[in-house]
Amino acid sequence: MTGESRETFGSKMGFIFAAAGSAIGLGNIWRFPYLVGMYGGAAFLIVYLVMVAIIGIVCFVAEVSLGRHTRQSNVGAFKAIKPSWAPVGLIGIIAGFMILSFYGVVGGWSIYYFFKAIAGFPSADPGVCGDMFGSFVSHPVSPLIFTALFMIATIYIVYSGIQDGIEKYSNIMMPALFVIIVILAIRSVTLPGASAGLEFYLKPDFSKITGETLLAALGQVFFTLSLGMGSILTYGSYLSQDENIPSVCTTVPLMDTLIAFLAGLVIFPAVFAYGFEPTSGGGLVFITLPAVFSEMPAGILFGSAFFFLIFLAALTSAISLLEPVVAYMIEEHGWERRRATVIMGSIIFAVGIFASLSNGVLSGFKIGGMVLFDLLDYISGNWLLPISGLLTAIFVAWVWGSDNALQEATNDGTVEFAWGNLWANVLIKYVAPILIAIVFLSSIGLIKV
Ligand code: TRP
């Protein structure tokens, strides 16, 4: 595919909504609040914000610049600069494939819970809600129906292309998501008894910051900003030549951070107002919140809005997980977009079937002590993303050269990039690779912080 015929986003806002759509997902609405709860409330928030600035935005600029410069997605981008680095792009493709196969399952849960919320959640007892969740996700057939619906929506949007698919739907879904989350946050913080939740979420206790907090924050920065697998690189390759990279690369992480912050404002005040515990992980959103909504006045309305919000957020992230895989088949194997989308989307769904079944009938099959669902999450999150993120940072800084990257990021010096020199000489060269390496080595247990 030549540079001339390649599709681009139609507008700056189109890119921003699509990239924000990629970034804002389950990572913000489910994972972020639970990490905040676990790692010291506002203290975690502050550490996280610093890391978004010194590593998240830094790597974001690197991926977008590499994509736009080469006008290629993952594998092609590395190849265009140094062919021997093409396998780094391939790690990202494999990571995207694995993430989407279980992400699609959770996306399916959000659709099911949307319908459940409309019908009204049955009980304010988290035990009952926990049983409801457990029996749904372990059922051999029903979650698959919803995963199929979710994957069909994902495939349909990517199939429709950049402007008529990803950009068009992101432009509708992202503002809708924003409106819903603001309404929900207002509802939550005005509930009687909300202040205990606000205190838990916003009053910093710096003594809670440990090495583990720093690791959790950095891992979250990567996951939530969609870094390390080429989602952002690929979207960057569709960014037009005259757009301002430093500006879009700050706007998107800020929007992502704002939505994560609002998700905490939705969840903690409501959970505390009804006297529940801010329990961890999937339980918070799929077990505790249904109990909360069954108590809340107009809980049907707010509950269904909440699960619709999760659905929208997951969908715009899922399309960004599928797009690099599809772009790879188009660019490197000459496939046509529609064929690539349908075939790759279906294979990912097929793996997703086994991931879903591994929560139920196949739960006896374990590899390394983990069922397939957890294994896909573990290998992609703890190994593939950090390795490819680290190699991407090294590649941009040292192989392509951070001065060349800076030229691209500033449109040959014509747009302002206030901290451009710091970015090129310090942050992308040393700070980002060293910190990512530390997180990676400690997440696989090779070093202790
Ligand atoms: N950032 C998304 C979320 O927070 C998930 C996601 C989309 C992602 N593309 C990615 C994570 C690429 C890592 C890498 O839910």
Commentary on this structure:
The protein has 449 residues and is mainly α. It is 77% helix and 0% strand. It contains 17 helices and no strands. Helix 1 (12-23) packs across helix 12, helix 9 packs across helix 12 (245-273) and helix 15 (337-357) packs antiparallel against helix 16. The longest helix is centred in the last third of the chain and has 38 residues, at 372-409. The protein starts with 11 loop residues before the first helix and ends in a 6-residue tail after the last helix. 54% of the residues are buried. The model has no long low-confidence stretch (mean pLDDT 92). Tryptophan (TRP) binds next to helix 1, helix 2, helix 10 and helix 14.
What is the secondary structure topology, with strand pairs?
Layout: H1 12-23, H2 26-38, H3 42-70, H4 74-81, H5 86-119, H6 126-137, H7 142-159, H8 162-189, H9 195-202, H10 211-224, H11 231-237, H12 245-273, H13 282-295, H14 299-333, H15 337-357, H16 372-409, H17 420-443
Helix pairs in contact: 1-8, 1-11, 1-12, 1-14, 2-10, 2-12, 3-4, 3-10, 3-11, 3-12, 3-16, 3-17, 4-5, 5-7, 5-14, 5-15, 5-16, 6-13, 7-8, 7-14, 7-15, 8-12, 8-14, 9-12, 11-14, 13-14, 14-15, 15-16, 16-17
The chain binds tryptophan.
Report a brief summary of the structure.
With 449 residues, the protein is mainly α. The chain has 17 helices and no strands.
